[in-house]
Each structure stands twice: as structure tokens, then as C-alpha cells.
Design goal:
alpha/beta, Na+/H+ antiporter like fold, Rossmann fold, two-stranded antiparallel ribbon, 14 strands, disordered C terminus
């Protein structure tokens, strides 16, 4: 009598595979191998090859042969394939491909053609006994060709990163070629999978699959790309339930997977392309990415690859003919991929040593190969023996790649121009704005509000940062036409700044996206606190009154305290009172050797780049009595080493973005007076200071910024790279909150 499916057995299978896969993956990672290898080995230990031989009753009890019970695990495997392809697409950084496209294209093309031809030839030379069916030789040959030609971009990127070559030229070429390899490979595989589903090949089937794939890719990277961005942003900004963006991402992936199934190709293409589009979304914050990655890496990855190991029966390799086939498959796959990639590297202009490293790096099959073999087995294009041989080939080539690539990369010296590029990229990776994934600007209709909108637009446009604008309505009734007009003017000012910054950007990425919609809040502080939960890297505040003398207005204090992250405060003075969007900013940035002052300098450089303005960096040091005595008698003092180093760092950062920074180092009696006087004497229109909040019952940056706030006649921008929430007491004594706020973004 056949029993129904047992939930207890199913959960036992999941727990055993999860624990064993995690332990074995951890051990492999500690010896320098990818965790996926350990997860497959864990499955082999739990399968018929080891546990089945040592304790067959226990193995059959844990993995019964009942079709219904096996169907439950098969469902997990299919879901694992879907999620792994989604994650692979999200990890596909197309910007790397754009930077090294010429050699990457030639490496990918030859690296696919040569091993694909080898696999196709092997499929036609196989004895009839190794074919799953008598009439399926062509499909089997196509599967073998595909299996031999693909590389695992995930494994390749992991090894290149671990070896410290992620930003080296040859490392970028290897990863770019693997990205293109993966993309072309999944397109080819999805078409072949579709053909395998029909069981035959005819012109109509092939044409429909090819045309459908071409149309799908075209629409995905045009209309679909924008649609995916908007859906993720809508879920993140409007849905209140927990992890709503994750649900939207999974729904998008499922919809595209179903769409590819409908056009006659396999769902893996839809899942992979969905992952690419999701990974490019400007709203995909590190938090959202980590949540989704945690679900896949913690559960589905170890379970899926351990399941592959369970399905692999190494006892079959005891047969001489299958052992010979497996050895030949490993040799053919390695030689075909290496020779194809090496040839492509030489065609693409790489040297001998670089092409050698590329050939070694492209030879890892890893997870991609295993997914191909699993799908081929489930479709009947491969039998159990061929499946075992392909999995063994994937394990061997993946384990062989790290040591061979390490040997090849050690032969590559760092060239002068490459060293200069690495230093520039290292400088940019440590920058403040590079970590800001999304901007929030909260403004009213005052000159300071419009000026803040203009500055944010410039920064967002030149650095391609998605931005949301929140209009603080002040005392105007929340539903009045005047409130709507104020909101529209602020949004228009910000978008004009984005357009100006976009023209000065040095990257070719899409223009910054500005979110504009209307939503009424009960008060401005709640509006900022509510919006901040949706994930922003920087708040820019522009509202009046901003300050009274040397103290900020209590509402400014509450606003920045309600935002748990870096913030900036813009105050319009001088020319910006009448013309908040005055072009070509003339910026003075006051710096010291501290990190916060360098963050202010970085934002000043971005604003100068966007407005085609100028930047002067002023380093002031208060003179001690002995130094003043020496100056009185005409003895020049050498600048401090820290000052010179700081100015050199700022100059280098400006050079990277095409901004010539003028630097001045001064020994003064009063730092605030020197900064204010220098701004007036140089006719600067904007004074930028990097600051940090000090412990107080109100917003306080220190005595120097306080005196500058009181006495400066030009516009001001205070930039704090840290939250103000921990630097002051709660809202006690801060005054009453104003009435309404209208959100336009």
C-alpha cells in the first residue's frame, strides 16, 4: 500500500541537507575552495554513493523512492534554480562589462564556440547505450555542447576577488567575459531547453524561440527596465507591510520567468534577466539586497547543491566506459574552454600572460554547470550516467580553477597606468557620496528651500543618485493651491539642477531619477521620520527660519534628529536670496584633517563639477603665541605636514572629476574670522563646511561653525556625515511643531 507524502520526512531531508551542506561548504571555504563544492560533496555523502553503501536502510528511509515524496524535493530544487538564477542576475555588474567590452566580447565568443563544438562532436560520438533515448541524440549533443561551453560568473568573481585581482585590468576582463558568457549561455540554454520540451527540432519551433527571445530581451532592457525600477520603488515607498520590496522582487522574477515559458524558452532566462534588471534598480538598497541574498544563500543554495550530490551516484564511475567518458569530458571541457578563451584574449589585444590568466580563469563551471545538468536530467535529455559525469566535471574544473588562476596571475606585474587607475578607484571607493544610494531633500518655499533643491539637483545629476523631494508647507493650509504651487516650484528647481548636473557627469549611466508625488502629512517632523524609514543615505534640509544668530532654529534641530543618518543644511544668503538657482557656484570649503571636513570637500567638488563652478579649499590653523612672534619678524612658517597631505588628497579627488581645486593654507589668530573674511574677499557665493554634531540640547557643531553661521554673508552648506540623533537630548524644550507638510517626492 502506497503511503502519502510525509511532512516529517520532507523536513528531515531539508534539515539534513541544510546542515551538512553548510558544514561542508564552510570547510571548503577554509581551504580556499568555493562553498558550492562542499555542498555538492555533502549531498554525495548523503546519497547512494556513501550513505547508501554504508547504511542502505537509513539512506532509503531518509530519501525514500516514493514518487510523491520525491516530487516534494523536486519542487524545492526547481524553486532553488529560480532563486539562484535571480541572484546570479543581480550579481551581474554590467558596468564591468562596459569597461572591458572589446576583449570580453572576443573571449566570450571564442570561449563558447570552441568548447560548444567539442561537446557537440562528443554527443555524436557517444555510444547508443549512453543516450537517454534512441531518437534524442541531437538534443543530448546540444546539452553537452552547452555544458562544456558555460562558465560560472559567481565562482569566477569569487575567486578573482579572493585573489585580490577584482580591480586589476585582467580581473575585470575575466569577470566581464564571464558575465557575457553567462548571459549568452543562458540564452542558448533556454532555447535548447525549449526545444527539449517539444522533443523535436523544426524550423518553426527554432524561429519562434529565437524571435521570442530577441523580442523579450529588447523589451526587457527598454520598457521593462523602467517598469521594474518603478515597481520596486512603489513597493518600497508605499507598502507598509514587512519586507514588501522582497515580495515585489520575487513577483517580478516569477512574472518574467513565466513570460519566457510562454514564448517557448525555459524559465531560467526570465529569472536571470529579471535578476539583472533588479540589480540595476536605483532603489535596491544594501538592506533589501542583503535580505533577499540571506534567504537564498542561507537556505536554497546549500539545499539545492546538496540535492545535486544526492542525485549523483559515484558508483556508476566504477564502470570503465563511464569512467573513461568522465575523464574525457573533463579533459575536453578544460582544453576547449582554455584554448577558446586564450584565443579570444589574443584576438582582443591581450598579451600572452594575460591571455593565459584568462584561459585559466574561465574554466570554472560551478553552479551554472550543475543547474544545466539538473535541468537536462529532469527533461530526459541526459540520463543518470551522463548527469553524474557532468557533475563530476563541474566539481573538478571548479576545484582546479583557483590554483591555476593564482599561478597565472602571479606572473602579471602591475603596469604604471594600471596602478594610477587603481589608486583613483581606491580614492573614489572611500568617498562619502559613493555610499549614498538615495537622497532625501526636505524643503519649504523659502529661498533656502529653493536653494537646497538646486544644490541637491546638481549633486544628484552629476553622481546619478535617485532623489525624493519632501515639501514642508509651513503655515500655508495643507490643501491650498499655494501649497501645491510651492511644491511644484521646488520640484522644478530640483529637476533643473539634475539636468545641469547630468550634462557635467563623467559616467554614462542613466540620469538621476526624481520621485515626485503628492501626499499630505500632519506635520513636517513626522513626514521626515516616516520617509526616512524607506531607506536614504543623506538628508538635505532647506527651510526658514534656519537660524537665529549662532543657533539653529529648533525645527531644524528636530528635523535632522528625526533622520537617522548623514545630513546637510543649506542656507541661502547673498545672491541666492533673489536667485536660488544661480549658475556657476563659486565655492569656498573650509577643511581640516578630519574625515568630516573631507566629506564637505567632496560634496563641494561635486557641486562645482555639476555647476561648472570653482572650488577653493582653505585650511586654517590657529597660531600659537610663538608662531605669531616668529611671523612678526618675517620668518615664514612651513605648512604642517597634515595640512599639506589633506590638500593633496582634495586636489587628487578634484582631478578625478575634472575639477581644479585651488588650495590655501593659512596660520590665523581666529579661524571663524579668517573663514568669513576669505569668503568675502574672494566673492565666494557658497561656503561649505564638513561638521559633526556635538552633545547639546540643540543642534550644535562647535564654536567655529557657530560663529560662521552668525557672521557669514554668503550662502552656507553644513555637511554632517553622521546622524545628529545621538548628539543631543530628546525633543524637550525644542518648541512646538508646525502644522502641515506636503510631500512631492
Amino acid at each position: 500500500m502506497e503511503h502519502g507524502p510525509s511532512v516529517a520526512v520532507f523536513l528531515s531531508q531539508i534539515v539534513v541537507l541544510l546542515v551538512m551542506g553548510r558544514i561542508a561548504g564552510e570547510l571548503m571555504q577554509r581551504i580556499g575552495q568555493p562553498p558550492v563544492i562542499g555542498q555538492i560533496i555533502a549531498g554525495v555523502l548523503m546519497g547512494p554513493s556513501v550513505l547508501g553503501a554504508l547504511a542502505p536502510d537509513l539512506q532509503h528511509h531518509l530519501f525514500p523512492a516514493a514518487p510523491v515524496q520525491k516530487a516534494m524535493l523536486d519542487a524545492v530544487a526547481q524553486l532553488g534554480i529560480f532563486l539562484l538564477l535571480l541572484l546570479t542576475g543581480m550579481e551581474t555588474d554590467l558596468s564591468v562589462f562596459r569597461q572591458a567590452r572589446r576583449p570580453a566580447i572576443s573571449i566570450s565568443i571564442t570561449g563558447i564556440i570552441v568548447p560548444f563544438a567539442c561537446g557537440l562532436a562528443l554527443g555524436y560520438l557517444l555510444p547508443q547505450s549512453l543516450l537517454p533515448s534512441s531518437g534524442g541524440r541531437l538534443i543530448t549533443a546540444l546539452f553537452l555542447g552547452t555544458a562544456l561551453s558555460v562558465s560560472s560568473v559567481k565562482i569566477v568573481a569569487l575567486v578573482v576577488r579572493d585573489l585580490g585581482f577584482l580591480r586589476r585590468t585582467v580581473g575585470q576582463v575575466i569577470i566581464a567575459a564571464a558575465i557575457l558568457d553567462d548571459t549568452i549561455g543562458w540564452i542558448i540554454m533556454s532555447v535548447i531547453f525549449g526545444l527539449a520540451l517539444t522533443g523535436k527540432i523544426d524550423i518553426a519551433t527554432v524561429s519562434r524561440a529565437a524571435l521570442g527571445t530577441a523580442l523579450f530581451l529588447t523589451l526587457s532592457f527598454t520598457v521593462g527596465r523602467r517598469l521594474v525600477f518603478r515597481l520596486i520603488r512603489w513597493a518600497n515607498d508605499n507598502l507598509k507591510s514587512e519586507m514588501a520590496p522582497i515580495s515585489m522582487i520575487l513577483a517580478i522574477g516569477g512574472a518574467l520567468a513565466l513570460l519566457t515559458e510562454a514564448i517557448g524558452v525555459h524559465f531560467v532566462l526570465g529569472a536571470f534577466i529579471a535578476g539583472i534588471l533588479i540589480g540595476q534598480s536605483p532603489i535596491l538598497t544594501r538592506q533589501i539586497d542583503a535580505q533577499l541574498r540571506g534567504l537564498i544563500v542561507a537556505l536554497f543554495m546549500p539545499v539545492f547543491f546538496a540535492l545535486v550530490g544526492v542525485a549523483t551516484d559515484l558508483a556508476a564511475l566504477a564502470k570503465p566506459d563511464l569512467l573513461l567518458l568522465t575523464a574525457g569530458l573533463i579533459l575536453l571541457a578544460s582544453a576547449g574552454k582554455f584554448s577558446g578563451a586564450f584565443l579570444g584574449g589574443r584576438i582582443g589585444g591581450l598579451g600572452y600572460a594575460e591571455s593565459l590568466a584568462v584561459g585559466c580563469g574561465m574554466n570554472a563551471r560551478g553552479s551554472t554547470e550543475v543547474i544545466v545538468a539538473t535541468i537536462g536530467l529532469s527533461m530526459g535529455a541526459l540520463d543518470q550516467n551522463l548527469f553524474t559525469a557532468i557533475v563530476a566535471m563541474a566539481v573538478v574544473t571548479t576545484m582546479a580553477m583557483p590554483p591555476t588562476l593564482r599561478w597565472a596571475l602571479q606572473r602579471l606585474p602591475v603596469r604604471h597606468e594600471e596602478q594610477a587607475r587603481l589608486e583613483r578607484e581606491q580614492l573614489e571607493s572611500q568617498s562619502f557620496l559613493s555610499r549614498v544610494e538615495r537622497l532625501l531633500v526636505a524643503v519649504d518655499a523659502s529661498p533656502s528651500g529653493l536653494f537646497a533643491s538646486h544644490l541637491v539637483g546638481l549633486a544628484a545629476g552629476v553622481r546619478r543618485i535617485p532623489t525624493t523631494i519632501l515639501h514642508v508647507a509651513g503655515t500655508v493650509p495643507k490643501d491650498s493651491d499655494a501649497t501645491r504651487r510651492e511644491a511644484q516650484r521646488s520640484t522644478a528647481t530640483l529637476k533643473a539642477g539634475v539636468d545641469a548636473g547630468d550634462e557635467s557627469a563623467v559616467t554614462s549611466a542613466d540620469k538621476a531619477d526624481v520621485l515626485s508625488r503628492s501626499e499630505v502629512h500632519t506635520d513636517s517632523e513626522d513626514a521626515i521620520e516616516t520617509e526616512a524609514r524607506k531607506g536614504y543615505g543623506l538628508l538635505v534640509l532647506g527651510r526658514e527660519p534656519a537660524a537665529v544668530g549662532a543657533a539653529f532654529d529648533p525645527r531644524i534641530t528636530r528635523n535632522v534628529t528625526d533622520f537617522a543618518g548623514p545630513f546637510a543644511i543649506a542656507i541661502a544668503r547673498g545672491v541666492h536670496r533673489q536667485r536660488p538657482s544661480e549658475p556657476k557656484l563659486k565655492i569656498l570649503v573650509a577643511v581640516t584633517g578630519t574625515r568630516v571636513s573631507l566629506q564637505g570637500a567632496e560634496l563641494a567638488i561635486a557641486l562645482a563639477q555639476a555647476s561648472r563652478g570653482t572650488v577653493t579649499a582653505l585650511y586654517v590653523t590657529v597660531a600659537k603665541p610663538a608662531a605669531r612672534w616668529r611671523q612678526r619678524f618675517g620668518r615664514a612658517l612651513a605648512p604642517q605636514h597634515s595640512a599639506v597631505a589633506t590638500m593633496r588628497e582634495i586636489e587628487e579627488f578634484g582631478e578625478h572629476y575634472g575639477v581644479a581645486v585651488k588650495t590655501e593654507i593659512r596660520l590665523v589668530d581666529s579661524a571663524p574670522a579668517a573663514i568669513v573674511n576669505h569668503a568675502q574677499e574672494g566673492s565666494h557665493t557658497l561656503l561649505v563646511m564638513g561638521v559633526s554634531a556635538r552633545p547639546a540640547d540643540h543642534l550644535f557643531f562647535g564654536h567655529v561653525p557657530a560663529e560662521v553661521l552668525e557672521n557669514a554673508t554668503c550662502s552656507l552648506l553644513f555637511v554632517s556625515g553622521e546622524s545628529a540623533a545621538g548628539a543631543r537630548a530628546p525633543h524637550a524644550g525644542a518648541g512646538t511643531r508646525p502644522g502641515t507638510a506636503v510631500k512631492t517626492g
